[in-house]
Amino acid sequence: MLPATARALGHRLAVAQSERRAPSVVAGLVRDGRRVWAGGRGEVGPGGAGATRYRIGSITKTVTAVQVMRLRDEGLIDLGDPLGAHLSTPHGGGATIAQLLAHTGGLAAEARGPWWERTPGSLRPELADVFGESPRKHPEGRRFHYSNPGYALLGALIEKLRGAPWFDVLRAEVLGPLGMTRTTALPVEPYARGWAVHPFADVRQPEPMVDTGRMAPAGQLWSTVDDLCAFAAFLLAGDDRVLGAESLAEMRRAASGPEAASWETAYGLGTQLVRHEGRLLVGHGGSMPGFVAGLWASPDEGMAAVTLANATSGTGPLAWDLLALLAEHEPSEPPAWRPLAEADPDLVALTGHWYWGTSDDVLRLHEDGYLSLRPVGNAGRGSRFRPEADGTWTGLDGYYAGETLRVGRRDDGTVTHLDLGTFVFTRRPYDPEAPVPGGADPEGWR
Hints:
Layout: H1 3-19, E1 24-31, E2 34-42, H2 48-51, E3 54-55, H3 59-73, H4 97-101, H5 127-130, H6 148-162, H7 166-175, E4 195-197, E5 204-206, H8 216-219, E6 222-223, H9 225-237, H10 245-252, E7 265-267, E8 272-276, E9 279-288, E10 291-298, E11 303-309, H11 318-329, H12 345-350, E12 352-356, E13 359-365, E14 371-375, E15 383-387, E16 393-395, E17 404-409, E18 415-420, E19 423-425
Antiparallel strand pairs: 1-2, 1-11, 3-6, 4-5, 7-8, 8-9, 9-10, 10-11, 12-13, 13-14, 14-15, 15-16, 16-17, 17-18, 18-19
Helix pairs in contact: 1-11, 3-6, 3-7
């Protein structure tokens, strides 16, 4: 990293710690799968900026969601299954697993009893104790309503299907393989103490640090900048030992809309989505008494930021600003273009202009062996396509996501058209020699 970049990042970190009056703030940046910068300001513990543990709050939800997606990929559950099909629960059993992941299960926002983040989990020993008198606030699937108890249910689902405590499963199947050895369920030295800073005076008092018990899957974990940078790199690229890139991409897609009219925020499967200054960011914020945290990634740019502070009040958009500074001072370079190692001549011959009706589209063959079909000018329906073993292609994004692209041929093998989800693409607009649904006028263009 250039010295000027590091100085700009360090200055922004110092401003956040000073203006937000946090006892300490630490941060790290990831690019191309590795941590490229870390810094700290204030009373950073003896572990230093990279290795001191902080509570990460609701970033825990994303880790929990990764484990749920592992269960799905193993075939033990389907995201469309009602929770009650797998777990006996007094409330929330009618919501699907996907709805609980995306906070559209209709459940209450908070747990029963006094403020659960500041009281011991022994007050809520069983699932029935998690919910108050009105556990269901909305019909399932109707609206986004953030629910911490919903993630308590997902943690219980993990325990039921694995036959082991929630954290033990995460440590064995997610944290361990990713090298996140300093991420723990309870504080282990060196760790930062949580503080409440007075809003109008430069004084503070300690916040309680309790084991939240059944609510732990919603916000219990402690972690470090180094560990969360490893997790951020995983969220961007995947790791087949934990979860593949396709499943992570599924988690990063919006599964529920925002409550604000701006449509600048949404929620995926255990991830938050935010648009900030033209940049789409995916990750999660976190807060527990005495701590605030953020993990935000820009998938399009292959970079991510992690911020941790030991104050109950927030540090503002620090993570977003650090990403913007990195992109401004050292913009990402596109990968070097490389030709295909091997190319089927028949496939190369398919590329070029195709017409859906009178719409002019271009089929391209890319260096990764995938196809793309997009309107000229890129305004309209378009997608990338993955090759399948049977000679067809599957849409990966856009309008044709999940749809099948087939090549139509005559008996002699020559190509007549492309069939994409029943839409017929021809080499000429309404080619009379192609099987255009409804046919072409016999008198032709006139």
